[in-house]
Design a protein that fits this description.
It is a single chain. By secondary structure, the protein is mainly α. It is about 50% helix and about 5% strand. It contains 11 helices and 4 strands, in the order H-H-H-H-H-E-H-H-E-E-E-H-H-H-H. The strands form 2 sheets. It has a two-stranded parallel ribbon. A two-stranded antiparallel ribbon has the order 3-4. A hairpin with a 2-residue loop joins strand 3 and strand 4. The N and C termini lie far apart (about 45 Å).
Length: about 230
């Protein structure tokens, strides 16, 4: 499991140009990760995921959010059966990730924290976990790794709305949030996830090693620095 988590993490983080996070984009990131798994790791994941690939489960966290997250211990919000989970993180002006609860933030624990926690838990305890819990933790880890590298999931000191402002996209005005929630992938090319993965999966081994150096908080800091909008 250690190798599975590390390989999935490395490849997901290496996709620096894959900045769309609707259904096709989440599946594309997972497909690139799957392409780099060893046969043994792929077989093990298939066993843990009921014979399905991580691509199949890429948007599972969005499709079955209330059921999944209540099973993982997240509490319902004020709306009936509505459960939210930390899919964003906040940084200071030096791009350091603010850990835990920050005044004004929506979430107590950010998604970078949970990637770190779930990866450590799977590494140490996957053999003792019940099948359903292990599957949920793998699925959420894959999803959060994608989410934490999306520009609209980062809260900066000067911008806390997660991209709820207008930008120009071609000849029309769209929300910045929506650019990364489908407009980017839907508008540029009529590709499916296999085509997208083939086009984007072009990092060399040395580039992947450099990009994935450090821990998950270093990766989040690098992402925040590269994604900050300049007016």
């Amino acid at each position: 499991m250690k190798k599975i988590v590390l390989v999935c993490t490395a490849v997901l983080l290496a996709c620096g140009t894959s900045y769309g996070w609707a259904r096709v984009a989440h599946a594309t990131v997972a497909k690139i990760a799957e392409n780099h798994l060893t046969p043994k790791a792929k077989k093990t994941l298939g066993k843990y995921l009921n014979g399905k690939s991580i691509t199949y489960y890429a948007s599972y966290a969005d499709d079955y959010k209330p059921e999944m997250l209540m099973d993982l211990g997240f509490e319902p919000s004020n709306a009936k059966r509505k459960v939210t989970f930390p899919h964003s993180f906040s940084v200071d002006n030096d791009y350091n990730i603010l850990r835990g609860q920050r005044e004004g933030d929506k979430f107590v624990k950010n998604c970078v924290y949970l990637v770190d926690e779930y990866a450590a838990d799977l590494k140490a305890n996957h053999r003792e976990m019940e099948d359903s819990l292990r599957m949920l933790k793998i699925v959420m880890l894959v999803h959060w790794l994608g989410d934490m590298h999306c520009p609209k999931h980062i809260r900066y000191p000067e911008e806390q709305t997660l991209g709820y402002y207008k930008v120009k996209w071609g000849n029309r005005s769209v929300r910045y949030h929506d650019v990364w929630d489908g407009v980017f992938f839907d508008g540029l090319h009529p590709w499916g996830l296999v085509d997208c993965a083939e086009q984007l999966d072009d990092c060399t081994k040395s580039e992947i090693k450099a990009i994935t150096a450090g821990d998950v908080y270093d990766w989040g800091k690098d992402m925040a620095k590269s994604a900050r909008c300049v007016n």
